[in-house]
Amino acid sequence: MVKWRTRIKASFEKFFPERQIYHRSAGTVNYISVSPWQQAIMAAGGAAVAAWFLFATVSVLLAPPGGALTGSTGEDVARLERWVQELRAKESLSRTLLEERTDAFQRATVDFEERHRNLELLLDALEGSEEIESSALRGDGAELLIEASIDTADPRQSRVMTARYETIEAVGVRARMNRLKSEQEEFLDRAEQLAVEKSERARGVLQLTSVGLNRIQGSTEGVGGPLIDMLALGSADVENPEERAFAERVIQVAARLEEAQTLESIVGNLPLAMPSSVPLRLTSNYGIRPDPFSRRSAWHNGVDMAAYYKAPITAAGPGTVTYAGRRTGYGRVVDVDHGFGFKSRYAHLHSISVRKGDNVVIGDVVGLMGSSGRSTGPHLHYEVIFQGKAYDPQQFLKAGQHVHEE
């Protein structure tokens, strides 16, 4: 009995294999699947219509000349006509169902393409990060959303499925779409968690500088990329409540990502590295100290660090040189603007290696250690300034140690 059923099923699948109908419009290739059962129904309908026409033709040919159809013959014709009408009604219903499924598939494809575009913006923001997977965009059957050309349609790449999706008969297009939606939601969850972790790490570093996180964030108004605006434009015209909710979720995650990017950008530009490529020893702290000339208490805006004469003095963070020359009390001095209101200052130099307007990165030599200006010997007077006020450079150096540990 089992073998008999297996043979029938094999024969049925051999005569009616699954087929796909491809349609190309405006450079986009779409396809619809016709299952074996749908093919069997269509074949049965066609066979019934052909049989009726054959029967009607034979009846006309065998009817006596000039004879009229009466009695049982008329009833047979009426019955056959009813059969034909029923078959036509079934055929019309099948076409309607097929068109509805095609329209539903196309609408779902458009919705997924919109999701895909929104998620691609987030993926660009996360590019290069190893903490998050992008399976919802780069794999796991997401070929359903790809706008393929006719070249990619010929080998039928979009029909390739992994074992986790089983077959289209068992799972169906709707189940596959639901699975992809679930993966997209997981992608958003992981992206938001990653953004929160990055923001917290950056906040921790900024708090160590003693400047005050609120003051730093208040100085970043107007900075940032167009990520939120781009997503908002895409979500304003969404009519489907589900897709509108998804677009709002994407905007929420994008806001967290933009916040993380802004904070990381601030940390990445701060003067957190040692201002020399050689070991330095601290010779004078920030704050109140005995003046080396008058011996009276005086305020010291930076720290003094010594090494050897003409030791290389390097930029403690990336930025732009805003001043390079002599200044009263400082001697030869270089100021570097790091953006976001931060500036670093390197004074008492023997010589200057940069010019105003030069862009520098961490480790670039800005000058050599000397004793120019109001100085008692070769050393570096190093300051960190935020919005015109000097802060303790040692706090920035401590914060920089945590950045290098990460």
Descriptive overview:
- It is a single chain.
- The chain is α+β, with helices and mostly antiparallel strands.
- It has ten helices and 14 strands.
- The strands form three sheets. Strands 3, 6, 7, 8, 9, 10, 11, 12, 13 and 14 form a ten-stranded antiparallel sheet that branches.
- Helix 8 packs antiparallel against helix 9 (241-269).
- The longest helix is centred in the N-terminal third of the chain and has 55 residues, at 72-126.
- It is rod-shaped and about 135 Å long.
- The protein starts with a helix and ends with a helix.
In brief, what are we looking at here?
The protein has ten helices and 14 strands. The protein has 406 residues and is α+β, with helices and mostly antiparallel strands.
Layout of helices and strands:
Blueprint: H1 2-15, E1 19-25, E2 28-34, H2 36-62, H3 72-126, H4 135-138, H5 150-153, H6 168-208, H7 213-218, H8 227-235, H9 241-269, E3 281-284, E4 287-290, E5 297-300, E6 303-306, E7 312-314, E8 319-327, E9 331-339, E10 342-352, E11 359-360, E12 365-369, E13 380-386, E14 389-391, H10 393-405
Antiparallel strand pairs: 1-2, 3-6, 4-5, 6-13, 7-12, 8-9, 8-11, 9-10, 10-12, 10-13, 13-14
Helix pairs in contact: 2-3, 3-6, 3-9, 6-9, 6-10, 8-9
